[in-house]
Amino acid sequence: MTGESCEEVFQDSFVTYDELFDLCELDNRRRLGSGVSGTAYKVIFKDKYACLKLGKCLEDQKSFDDEASILTELKGAGGAPLLYCVCNNFPAIVISFRGGITLYKYCKNNELDLETILSLFIKVARKLEEIHLRGFTHNDLKSDNILVQETDGCLELNIIDFGLSTEVGGYVDWYHTPEEHEQYPHYAPEVFFTGPCTPKGDVYSLGYMMFNLLGSYFRKKKIPGPLCLIRLIDFMMDAERTKRPSILQVIEILEKIIDHLGTNATPQDAAASADAASEADAASEADATSRTCAVPRDDVPPVTDVPQRGDAAGSSIINKIKRVALRHALYTALSCVFGCIQQPQY
Ligand SMILES: Nc1ncnc2c1ncn2[C@@H]1O[C@H](COP(=O)(O)OP(=O)(O)OP(=O)(O)O)[C@@H](O)[C@H]1O
Ligand SMILES: [Mg+2]
């Protein structure tokens, strides 16, 4: 699909439901995945592989229309699929096939080292930056909505699923209670409740994704996560969006941490090395506005704004995450001292 421009592929392709199935040959009915808003199939569309996203019912129409118009505007930014065709009497779109597997599966199926995992986060952050520069926010970033493809030994990452994406400053059209946020913790509190959606909402979701993927890595290695990474995630997931670092700051910090990871180091050395990097940064970077992971948490000024409903829920999830991180650190420390102990359920 590389080299195809959006204009080239989306030539006023509005079709009826019947026409859609004439145009799309189902590739052995291969279901790529399904979610709340429908099912994705791998199809052959005009002699090339494509992805058919099919809604469940007519109520899904708005989210499909929104996704179609945002994909047109994005023009492939962040690896977003190109729009091939829109169904005009049922929620369905045909988009370019991005191949590969989800980042979640990629990390689960491969024995990745810390440097590779952190490099993947940087790649995701760069893709997000592309989307933000186009004036949009993704709002639903998670490892299931990122596809990883290996081409000529290089890993390519594509962000997919723009069903909840909005313009920067926009609002997702839904209503939720704080209890519901616990079921969908990857959404930034302001995205889930009050709005507006800004790039900082995607920073929050990236932080949550990093928390999960790094949590699995350190649990597997049975070592505590480096404090600088825990701090970085903590900043990224601040309930107050203005206090989160920007995507560019996240990239910068991750690059610094990678720089300090010795290539031959054991995971323990790597963790210690990453913390050493954090301490070095703390000494050299005293800029209070660009709050890096090196700034101790206690230095953060108290929130003076009247707390919003979203903030309360955000704080509760941050506290929960902190508790989990603390429990995990304690568990790994104890298991180092006493040998193998039963792994706690998070
Ligand atoms: N363009 C694409 N190329 C290849 N695979 C895709 C593509 N789009 C979606 N998929 C696959 O289909 C799955 C579901 O697609 P998508 O995330 O867009 O739908 P969804 O219904 O909004 O899912 P959810 O609600 O779980 O986020 C993805 O996780 C991915 O595996
Ligand atoms: Mg999805």
Automatic annotation (TrEMBL):
Region (Disordered): 269-309
Protein name: Protein kinase domain-containing protein
GO biological process: signal transduction
Record-annotated Protein kinase domain positions: 26-303
Record field: compositional bias (Low complexity): 269-287
Phylogenetic classification of the source organism: Eukaryota, Metazoa, Ecdysozoa, Arthropoda, Crustacea
Signal peptide: none
PANTHER family: AT08303P, SERINE-THREONINE PROTEIN KINASE
InterPro entries recorded: Kinase-like_dom_sf, Prot_kinase_dom, Ser/Thr_kinase_AS, Ser_Thr_protein_kinase
Cited PROSITE patterns: PROTEIN_KINASE_DOM, PROTEIN_KINASE_ST
Any single GO CC term annotated in Swiss-Prot or TrEMBL for this entry: cytoplasm
GO molecular function, one term: ATP binding
